[in-house]
Amino acid sequence: MKAVQYAERGGPEVLRVVDVEEPHAGPGQVRIAVRAAGVNPADWKIREGFIPGGKLPAGTGLDAAGVVDEVGEGVTGVAVGDAVFGSGSATYAEHAVLTAWAPKPAATSFEEAAGYPAPVETARRILTEVGVRPGQTLVVSGAAGGVGSAVVQLAGARGISVIGTASAGNQDYLRSLGAIATTYGDGFADRVRELAPDGVDAALDIAGAGVVEDLIGLTGDPAKVLSIADFSAPEHGAKVSSTAVDRPAALAEAAELVAKGELRIPVARAFALAEAGAAQRASQEGHVTGRYVVTVP
After folding, report:
1. Residue 252 within any structural domain of the chain
2. Which parts of the chain have pLDDT scores under 50?
């Protein structure tokens, strides 16, 4: 089958479409014929060696949507032919094995569904870990990307008021998700204070733009600030979150919210399998509104 692999650590130019042996579903797993794979920052961080990625050559990709064509031992509630989305490994490929999945909402495209797993799991986890509660105010720095979009909508569904930062061109997008929008950059903390005269209860740093100290100033408590992108945050007393928790529950919640029209992360651009390097380069550059995905014919 065709799959994207790399034989050495490096930039997106090391990615190649190659012929490899098909994977097969083991116990507790399903295999899908991939229709689309989500593009996550973890993909390029593993490829470049910032996150351990095992032996080479290696496939790339963690999220996908497609049609089940193998069901592993002990798996119930899903059958060959079912359309699903979920998390696994080496998902930029014609076939991939998933270790967590949920039914794809019928009205949702495979491209859109492929963009949900990692952002929704991350959003769900960090909202819990930062300890923000219904009725409180949350600041989200870098709110227009995949994770930020999920945070804004999951928080809103829980009765949390969200102030989100993004570029000037993404202000209307954030408002469409239910956030109070403002721009990042110089003076953003003062702008947030004007928007939250009663104070800020918690803050999330999604983009890693060096704002942890400003967020601590806004909350008044380092323990109420969490980053997924700035690993120096603990030096200031803030938290870092990087380990996935209960993917099946996150996927089930995503499927439910999407089906009810309470969650949507738009596809900013779909890349062909042969354009995997360009897709990861775009992800690394940031500033995306929604999600990038790689499609498989």
Report:
1. no
2. none
